[in-house]
Amino acid sequence: MSDDARIKHLEDEVRQLKVETTVLKEILGRQIALNNLNYKR
User: Fold this and answer.
1) What is the 3-state secondary structure (H, E, C) of the chain?
2) 1 contact partners, CB below 8 Å, separation of at least 6
3) What is the pTM of this model?
């Protein structure tokens, strides 16, 4: 595997991880909001 190919592969992987992190943060935020609503009752 050439350096360029390895760099491209790593860049793609970083991009994928950024997407997954964003999605997880969104889910976590909603979960916290739900927990807060349930706690206040």
Assistant:
1) CCHHHHHHHHHHHHHHHHHHHHHHHHHHHHHHHHHHHHHHC
2) 9
3) 0.70
Q: Which two tokens stand for residue 10?
A: 């790593």
Tokens read off for 29: 């935020």
CA distance 19 to 1: 26
Residue reference for tokens 């592969």: 9
pLDDT of residue 5: 97
pLDDT 10s digits, 1-41: 899 999 999 999 999 999 999 999 999 999 999 999 988 87
